[in-house]
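Appendix B, Record 12. Input sequence as logged:
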Amino acid sequence: MTHFRTRLALLGTAAVLTAGAAVPAQFAGAQPAAAADRKQWVALGGSYTAGVIRAAGNTFEVPRDGCERTDRAYPQVIDRDLGGLFELTNVSCGAATIDNVTDTPQHPIGRHQPPISVPNRLKTVRHDYDRMLAALHQRDPHAKILAVGYPTVIPRDAATCSFGDLAQFGTITQGDLAWLRQGVLESLNKAIDDSTGTQDAASFVDLYASSRDHSVCDDSKWVEGFVTLPDQLSFVHPNALGHRNAADHVEEAMPNTLG
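Logged structural output:
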């Protein structure tokens, strides 16, 4: 990553998050601005930002670069909502890490496994997240940052999940799912929220509450399981409905961030 031309940075879900630009949602559908007047925004992040699965749309870049960005992932949804007023540079990429945002070139490998980790890893993520926010601020002191959290992936009652169902979590036990929800996903959201709270230019966008009834195990799911039937590997990633929800909350947060 080199020079950031952003006024608003959006940090997105997965180990790395996103960067973006200042865009009041009420401008959606307005007449395109002259190219010189366009605000710039950059989308950074891993697979939860890039999309990467068929349920999040089609890959759209030719030639493909291995990042597996899809056309219904939330950066692209926001870009369509905001019309010609704001110019998107989408460099989100499946399997990106926090280091890829700050200082390490990435060699794209496409989609990757969901964020399953242990407590020591969470401490490392919190430290690296702080470092990443500081690096973004240093590269553009005028940028504003929205850190977009993870949605509800696992339901509050893991007993609603069907053991052995590959369209959900396969053979992960209910006890392990409950631990993953509390010990990993909810803790990861808290780490991101706490980290952004230390930065005057950063704010947290919560997707967890709004997606509570749309987990992998709910009938109206916004996150796919290991497999999307009949035969698409999805590796527990948001589908197009989940990305639409993320886009709605990011767009809603933008005017307050600018104010």
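Confidence is low (pLDDT under 50) at residues 1-7, 11-31.
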